[in-house]
């Protein structure tokens, strides 16, 4: 388990009242991911979701039914089915360096008596990047999408 460094990293976690496999499936199924990945009322479109090391992770967003714009272009670094996803926007799919990446995310799922402990860590290369991410609304944004994920998986659909 990665240790969060207050100087460089940010974290959100939540107990989701659903089994871990349901949370995992909401992460790796493009149709389900699109439902919770971006804070509403923004709309998400999953362009690529190749959940394997080196696989591409590309999403777009639309506001007020406008045209879709880039949201995230990243590369999966590590995937352990049902337990962990690590991706970074410092690389794009196929291990290609990205122009302006600044974060590596570690998503971990573990069993909890009430369901699943969901932990999302955002690792940055500098304190300035961490501060920028926090000022951009990290806690509201990532906290909102975790709440949306919980809503999707806690109600059986």
TrEMBL record:
CDD domains: SRPBCC_CalC_Aha1-like_3. Coiled coil: none annotated. Residues 17-154 form the Activator of Hsp90 ATPase homologue 1/2-like C-terminal domain. Belongs to the AHA1 family. This is Polyketide cyclase.
